[in-house]
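Structure first, sequence second, as always.
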């Protein structure tokens, strides 16, 4: 069996000038080490094996290995083999270089207008764990061992249909499990055929906007709202109309001049402010969608985590055959790297969007979907959510107490409704929340500036503080660092 290193060196041998075999092999290995194709500490094939793979004599390979050893490119370990050295003599003379033009200058990179716009508004944090990163659950508390057992059981003798592409919108087992769960937990009305499994909410929104909107179509979003949605809408060349949010959720205009194609809302727990969409406004949006022929996109990203009172039913289930595209995710309830979300499609859209999803994204991960279906059907999912709800409630109360103790109750958002995975810490209009977040990040404390969630110039100042992944014993020290950054900015 040919090794990966053998394949690489066979290719490189063909690229060498017509010279003696040992010199061609020497140059092939040396070049591969210098350009990183053979990384430091990687093991080279045994001389006998490499000779067979390259159809060379073993003496030729031994001669080259000895030369590379003498020059410091490789190391020989008794009984273990030959390895690329950690540092090599010509490491400062790497053969890799940036693309250059005819005049020797680096080739300029030209991105599209929408590509440049995306980069200008990019907000994804390079760090996704620690105090007080918003929206990240405690991934350590997930029952990994239990889930691994379910996966192992399914993977022992997997059916062929679980190992190929999916063109039915996902695993039938997971589709059925979600129907049963959503009916009870979220009052969602649907059948398994209406469930489409996606790689998270971003893919779902991208699919919906591509399939239902033409360039320059008007879409409504919440102001402030999730920056990830705005970036997808920009990339799809849509006319974004931000609508203000108050204590009763998004505020639809009294007079609708155009016909919004899509209306994006987070009705159960507005992101980021936290208000709940009132019944009157839910009915208003449904009537508008029916009248204009548009669709409501309901993002129910963290609805499971309400720490007091009754759960808020989904907008989708308020009316039969509602013009609502319901989107959910397992990123908050389980862990983000799972990259599994789901869409409940209105019946008229089901066939078209499932076909489009298969064409654009090639659905897969059917084994892990089947494992997740069993995890849900056996009751582990709801049990895990109950445990996490209690854990997050304690952490939320602890952080709330810290904020009130040091900054007073007025520092907490007036939309505080005891739900979700983050709090809003209010700041005076004179504060620079972007600078505070940057200063805190330099001290290892991760918060997000509220002002970055607005599109329009009029914007509130504040900080999004996640508490879900921060044990109570770590909160006080992290909060002290953040408080110092706030006070320095307000001087």
């Amino acid at each position: 069996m040919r090794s990966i290193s053998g394949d690489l060196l066979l290719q490189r041998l063909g690229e060498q000038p017509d010279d003696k075999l040992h010199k061609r092999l020497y140059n092939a290995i040396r070049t591969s080490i210098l350009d990183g194709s053979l990384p430091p500490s990687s093991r080279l094939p045994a001389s006998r094996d490499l000779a067979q793979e390259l159809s060379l004599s073993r003496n030729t390979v031994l001669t080259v290995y000895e030369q590379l050893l003498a020059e410091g490119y490789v190391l020989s370990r008794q009984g273990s083999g030959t390895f690329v050295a950690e540092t090599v003599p010509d490491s400062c003379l790497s053969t890799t270089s940036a693309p250059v033009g005819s005049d020797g200058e680096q080739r300029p990179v030209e991105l599209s207008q929408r590509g440049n716009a995306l980069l200008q508004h990019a907000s994804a944090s390079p760090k996704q764990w620690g105090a007080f990163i918003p929206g990240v659950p405690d991934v350590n508390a997930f029952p990994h061992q239990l889930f691994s057992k379910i996966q192992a059981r399914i993977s022992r003798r997997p059916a062929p249909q679980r190992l190929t592409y999916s063109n039915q919108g996902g695993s039938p087992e997971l589709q059925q499990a979600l129907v049963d769960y959503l009916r009870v937990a979220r009052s969602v009305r649907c059948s398994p055929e209406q469930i489409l499994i996606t790689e998270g909410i971003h893919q779902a929104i991208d699919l919906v906007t591509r399939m239902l909107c033409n360039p320059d179509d008007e879409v409504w979003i919440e102001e402030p709202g999730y920056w990830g949605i705005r970036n997808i809408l920009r990339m799809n060349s849509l006319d974004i109309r931000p609508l203000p949010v108050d204590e009763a959720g998004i505020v639809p205009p009294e007079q609708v001049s155009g016909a919004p194609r899509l209306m994006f809302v987070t009705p159960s727990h507005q992101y980021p402010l936290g208000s709940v969409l009132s019944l009157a406004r839910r009915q208003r949006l449904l009537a508008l969608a029916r009248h204009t022929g548009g669709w409501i996109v309901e993002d129910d990203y963290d609805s499971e985590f309400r720490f007091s009172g009754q759960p808020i039913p989904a907008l989708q289930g308020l009316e039969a055959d509602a013009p609502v595209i319901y989107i959910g995710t397992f990123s908050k309830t389980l862990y983000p790297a799972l990259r599994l979300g789901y869409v409940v499609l209105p019946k008229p859209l089901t066939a078209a969007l499932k076909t489009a999803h298969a064409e654009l994204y090639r659905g897969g991960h059917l084994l892990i979907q089947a494992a997740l279906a069993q995890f849900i059907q056996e009751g582990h999912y709801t049990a895990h959510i109950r445990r996490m709800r209690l854990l997050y409630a304690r952490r939320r109360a602890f952080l709330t107490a810290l904020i009130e103790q040091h900054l007073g109750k007025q520092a907490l958002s007036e939309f505080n409704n005891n739900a979700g995975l983050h709090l809003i810490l209010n700041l005076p209009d004179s504060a620079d929340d972007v600078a505070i977040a940057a200063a805190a990040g330099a001290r290892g404390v991760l918060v997000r500036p509220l002002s970055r969630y607005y599109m329009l110039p009029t914007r509130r100042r504040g900080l999004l503080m996640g508490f879900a992944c921060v044990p109570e014993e770590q909160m006080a020290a992290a909060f002290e660092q953040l408080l110092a950054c706030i006070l320095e900015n307000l001087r």
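Margin note: The longest strand covers residues 239-246.
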